[in-house]
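Quick one - inputs below.
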Amino acid sequence: MSNITEIAKRANVSRTTVSRVLNHHPYVKHDKREAVFQAMKELHYVPNLNAINLSRGRTNVLGVIVPKISHPFFSSLIEGIGEECHQFDYSLLVYQSNNDPKKELQFFDKLKHQQIDGLILGSSVLPTATVDHFAQYLNVVSCENSNSNILPRVYVNHGHGIQLAIDHLRERGHQKMGLCIGNPQSGVGVTRRESFFHFQELYELNWQEEWYFSEQYTIDHGREIARNLIEQKERPTAMIVGSDQVAAGLYYELANQELRIPEDLAIVGFDNQPIAQITELTTIQQPVKELGKKAVFLLNNLIHKQIVPLSNLFDLQLIARKST
Amino acid sequence: MSNITEIAKRANVSRTTVSRVLNHHPYVKHDKREAVFQAMKELHYVPNLNAINLSRGRTNVLGVIVPKISHPFFSSLIEGIGEECHQFDYSLLVYQSNNDPKKELQFFDKLKHQQIDGLILGSSVLPTATVDHFAQYLNVVSCENSNSNILPRVYVNHGHGIQLAIDHLRERGHQKMGLCIGNPQSGVGVTRRESFFHFQELYELNWQEEWYFSEQYTIDHGREIARNLIEQKERPTAMIVGSDQVAAGLYYELANQELRIPEDLAIVGFDNQPIAQITELTTIQQPVKELGKKAVFLLNNLIHKQIVPLSNLFDLQLIARKST
DNA sequence: TTGAAAGCGCTAACAA
DNA sequence: TTGTTAGCGCTTTCAA
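Output:
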């Protein structure tokens, strides 16, 4: 592996001049520049990024941490982030936390170790205070809302999503609705739950304790919920489900048990994943990739010491299909 | 940000000793070691990875390149890779190629630039010769089969998958089968196609040109195929589809058009994604995460100059459901 | 327009 | 068991 010293020798210039050529610095005479290029070609020169990073004190790498990489929401988020990283010439380090706060903390270490220039929190279970502590001196952007006053975030208004779902169901005459969410600790989970109960009260709906489910992530969870609901003496007439996967499982098991959808039970999902299209699921669509792209945009500004808006809200949309 | 020089001063030792403490080197007296730890604590010392990487000439980062991050197969692959990386204390850089050879080449550059220690090809459209060229002096592992004699790879026998599907269909009396695959250039695509035609001949089945589809990736593609098939005067009685998503779209549109599955058309998918479970799709299951984990294992051995087997085959399994 | 020289923060061969 | 010293490959003042 050749280095700038060798290039400099062969091109009969100083290492500095080679560095200038490398960095497209203006003050280099044409023939010297050519000589350097020639030498680089002959020696198959490849710059060593670690050396550059060490010198410059940055890496051009961003990190993203998500609970589960293969979850459709997060893989789309990563995709959006990845595409925008490519635009800004960042590489992307991906880390899976499994919602384990210890793992999240580990990832912050990478930031501190200067292995990455900035960090995107796909979803975090750390307390606001902890994240804020890091956000004070590190470049962090979150993809969930929070009440921090220093952490920039991009997010959709999940409360509004719940409202869209409830309004839509009420229009169709429903008064008895259940709720099913994933991680109740996460920002998203908290918001959805609070918002759900808020509107239950506001509209004076007949909510019941047994119609609330949390920690539901998979199709099989959805099927369990179906069996659970069927057992209940008084069922809700509609379920709002925080994930299309779970909603699809619910749908599937209900149909298996000969219940009609939406007549016996209406279902609203979240995310508009492919599976929602196939099962004709009414769902709340989120602009996931846009979310990711915006996060990179903000992080890049943060890295360049620019002021970024803390709160960046994206719109949700209800997609009505046959399940309601 | 403090560095080892400051730590050394404060602990009254040399930089070397600090480095030894950092690297758990045995020859350090207990009290000096304690003094160093004390100093590190007081100065909130955090090692600079770039400096370490530069010194050591490696980064402890692996890279993976996939056509599309949000595709269920690849997001599961990344998940498996990520989990194993965590075991071996590697970070993971993720890159999306969109099947663009230029982008793949860019990623090889990162390897050359020593930004990563090794590279996993999730799927590549580069010629074998090109990949081999890199594999000669770089650490590369592929997740597709190839006929290279230097590139280590982990893969499932897609030919066998096709055979499983065809045998299963023949048992159910099918003689007229169509094939639908994704990228026909990729190793997977090539193998599936060749194998399909091989068995068509071997079993003397009535294959027709119009029953072959490629470049099919989405649910909507599947729906198009359904409409296309319906138009045909002589339809196949079964379709083998290289992706559950496409298969689900096919299923969905056929059902919409009042065709019965499997009576009017049987369908076999690939991957056993959640969507296959919901649509009761017979499918070929691949051990995706295990594939990813093995790839990391091999790459780690490669990095440590150990000899690795070139060909690492994983078994496939047919999961019979109601679509056949 | 060019080059010398001093870092960036750490590791590791060598000597003591 | 410890320290000295010379790098790793590049950037960036500063002076010419």
